[in-house]
Every structure is written in structure tokens, then in C-alpha cells.
Amino acid sequence: MRRLMLLRHAKTENDAPTGQDQDRRLDQRGRCDAAEIGGWIAKHPPFPDSVLVSPAVRSHQTWDIAAEAMHGAAPPPKVAFVPELYGADVSTLLQIVHAAAADDPQRLMLIGHNPGLHEFAFTLTGSGNPAGRTALADNLPTSGLVVIDFAIEDWGDVSFRGGQLELFISPKLLKAAPGS
To answer: Looking at residue 174, what is its pLDDT?
Structure first.
């Protein structure tokens, strides 16, 4: 069994001071949302063994804030910054996941961008949580987390429609949940 966690970066400023998209930083809401999703992950194991992060500033910041919120909840995962995650399409994302077979984590997290992550999540899930699939159909919002399980022993065996959607959560959905 392998678990893939897809986390879209948190909400950002509209423009970076440099004018470069990769340099856009999280805004205040993004910082709060990244902490909230990290806190949620800390309370809902199992945790990722390996985290692959886009080189964009907003992705680094999302991971740093989420990891801080998770601090002490689990052993720290192996973290790598993967240039191919920036602007990745579905086929590139699949190649990145297949390449994870070299390190063989049980639970892998990717932190990246739309539209690639949203399309990837939807393409991978052939079954699973109906409410989550409905909520995910329109969008993977900033700080949105998708958890997909695969009944496989090797990341190289991940295939389209081969995963089961276990969970789709976002700060907005957390706020709307009963008892929140």
C-alpha cells in the first residue's frame, strides 16, 4: 500500500517584487491557511515519509509553515526540492511519482501548483470518497490537500484511475465542518 498526498501551495500575493511568478510569496491568509493545514495533518496520521516541493517561493513557504505546525507530531520527513514540479502537467507529475520508487517511501507528499495538481488528483482517483470527489471536481484550492491510496507495492505502478481517494480537505472545508 502506498499513500500519495497532494498539497497545493497556500494563497499568495498577486505580484512578486521581482516580477517573477516563481518569487510570489504567501500573503497573510496563505500563512494562516498553511499553518491550519499543517495542524490538521499533525492530528491525522499517517504522516508523509518524503516530501517533494516545487522550487517556487510560495511552495517553500507553504511547506515551512505546515512543517512547523506538524513539528513534534511525527519524525521529520525527507524533503527535496524538485524543479520539475513548477508548472508540471499530469504526465510530468506521474513521472515524478514513479521516480519516488528509488527512495521507496510508504507515504509521499507533493507540494505544487494548479492546474497540474488538480488535474493529477482527479486523473489518479478511480474510486473512493464520493463527497471528496464531488468537492474536488471543480477545483483544488490553495492549501487544498488530497490524499490518495494505491494498492501497490512500488511507486512505479501508480496509474491513472488506479487510486482511491481517501480524503480531500481545505481550510475552507475545515471551517465549514461541524464543531469547527
So the answer is: 87
